[in-house]
Amino acid sequence: MKFGHYLRAWWRLSRVPFLPVGILPLTLGFFLAGRWGYTGPLGLYLLSVAAVTLIMWMAYYLGEWNDIEGDRLNQAFNRFSGGSRVFVMKWIPPWVSLLLGYGSLVGAVLIGLFIYFQYQTGPWTLPLGGIGIFFGFFYSSKPLRWSYRGWGEILIGFCYGWLPVATGFYLLTGFFSHQAFLLSIPISLSVFNVILINEFPDEEADLAVGKRNLVVRYGKERIGDFYIGASILAAFSLIKVILVAGKSTPLLFVASAFPILLTSRNLFRMMKGDFQSRQRLEILCRDTLLVNLSMGFILTVQQALELID
Questions:
Q1: What tens digit of pLDDT does each residue of 240-261 get?
Q2: Among 224, 216, 212, 158, residue whose Cα is nearest residue 185
Q3: Which of these, 298, 308, 207, lies nearest to 253 by C-alpha position?
Q4: Weakest-pLDDT range from 56-65, 247-256, 297-306
Q5: 169: number of Cβ within 10 Å
Q6: Cα torsion for 306, 51, 183, 28, to the nearest 10°?
Q7: Mind listing the domains of the chain with CATH numbers?
Q8: Are 152 and 146 in contact (CB under 8 A)?
């Protein structure tokens, strides 16, 4: 009984269902490198995924610790916002998150060093990992606290967009490519929207604890315009990338209809003011995440099909 309780708490605290948001772009970079004729040993792929997962966990765990005051005040949370709630519900003590966060940090550093020395992946290996660790650690930790200063949303777009795509490509090739940047554009824009919409339910609690993110600074109505603009750009960039980054098969265009149609529905909901309703806002949060995941999946499949062909 106790084991099941702690396992459930860990699952929620670790946000396991959200890990593909970072792993998919890394895999996209792997497949792009494969298209160029670059491959690596299985251990390199697995360790790279492990390192990215640990960096994400570090940010999640430390974020829970640093945001616990706001999470306790938050009464408008949903499944996609307001933290995991495991500390608010007193499932486990808060210090567990701090321990897991620093443990994940140490694990990510050790794996990064092993990858660099074992596989000779190039001089930018450690700086790329270091950038992810630096931005992830200080996303909510003092003294920088990006998410409290209005920089968190932009850094999320970078760290879950270009950074993992470019890292996956670089680890196998030893150089960077403009194609990695091109492929990362719809992913960066759509994940920017994920964090943006997830801040809507937390506005009052964030304001109370001095968390000056974009929603707190400018309000839901104005940030709703940002959301709409980023959604349109993400949809058009996805179509553009599919046309120029590989073979544009009919199957890919059919598949791309899902995020495009879902984006259109999200735009309609946003313009209709669905973010004012707690229940409809949760659906918006869910569907914005689905847009990001489906875009990443479609682009990864495109590069995989190119590699197979």
A1: 888 886 666 677 778 889 999 9
A2: 158
A3: 298
A4: 247-256
A5: 28
A6: 20
A7: 2-308 (1.10.600)
A8: yes
What Å distances lie between residue 73 and 29, 67, 83, 149, 189, CA to CA?
A: 40, 10, 12, 20, 30
Q: What's the CA gap between 235 and 267, in Å, rounded?
A: 11
pLDDT digit string, tens, across residues 167-187 = 999 999 999 999 999 999 999
Report the 10 Å Cβ neighbour count for 37. Answer: 9
DSSP letter (8 states) at residue 246: S
Residue type at 108 in one-letter notation: A
Contact 200, 281 (CB under 8 A): yes
Q: Which long-range contacts (CB under 8 A, 24 or more apart) does 237-242 make?
A: 237/185, 237/186, 237/189, 238/186, 238/295, 238/298, 238/299, 241/182, 241/183, 241/185, 241/186, 241/299, 242/298, 242/299, 242/302
* Single-letter residue type at 91: W
